[in-house]
Amino acid sequence: MANPFAPYQPQRRRVFVSYHHRADQAYYEDFSSVFHDGFEAITDTSLERRIDSADFAYIMRCIREKHLTGSSCTIVLCGRDTPRRRYVDWEIEASLSQQMGLVAVLLPTIEVFSNGGTAKPDRLQDNIDSGYAEWVWWYDLRNNPASLATIVERANSKSGRLILNTRRRMERNG
Asked: In the 8-state DSSP scheme, what is residue 121?
């Protein structure tokens, strides 16, 4: 029986981290080492070269069943090449179809436009614009690691009515 006088402990969320392996592996490793105690699991189960099939329906089912199962939120590490990675797009699409929370972490390598905007995967940008996805700059997150729990909770509390998931699925890397 739980102790009714014990202090409230917020639920430790299980998150899925999507990123471009070749370009952003060091950021993933840093992210994982800093945040592994605050979340039930941050696992590297991204798809890069793991599913050998041309059947999109099969691949999407594998993403949902083998990679996202048990996670409540997808965190996308957004670097310079992330907008052109098809598996990142597919992971975002599958996450949105399950109404998982969605958080963008803008890495120092992200392309910044002259108007101050940044190059992110289109499906992710749609959901930032709609108000569904949360976003944070890498250095802000690293300077205040405790803020990630609040960001994830905010992402998980968003209404599914805000989800925009109508783009065509990327067929190849750009």
From this structure: -
Domain ranges of the chain: 14-159
* Residues 96 and 103 sit within 8 Å (Cβ to Cβ): no
Which contiguous run of DSSP H or E holds residue 56?
Answer: helix 56-62
Give the whole-angstrom CA distance, residue 158 versus residue 115.
28
Q: Considering only CA atoms, which of 27, 169, 52 is closest in space to residue 104?
A: 27
Q: What φ, ψ does residue 149 adopt, rounded to 5°?
A: -60, -45
Q: How far apart, in whole angstroms, are the C-alpha atoms of residue 150 and residue 38?
A: 11
Q: Which two tokens stand for residue 115?
A: 């108007």
Task: Answer whether 173's CB lies under 8 Å from 83's CB.
Answer: no
User: pLDDT tens track of the chain, all 174 residues?
Assistant: 555 665 545 566 788 899 998 899 999 999 988 887 777 555 555 555 456 666 667 766 766 666 677 788 999 999 999 999 988 998 999 999 999 999 999 999 999 999 999 999 999 999 999 999 999 999 999 999 999 999 999 999 999 999 999 999 888 887
Q: What is the rounded CA–CA span in Å between residue 44 and residue 46?
A: 6
Distance CA 77, CA 31 (A): 9
Cα dist from 75 to 71, 82, 86, 90, whole Å: 10, 13, 16, 13
Q: What is the CATH number of domain 14-159?
A: 3.40.50.10140
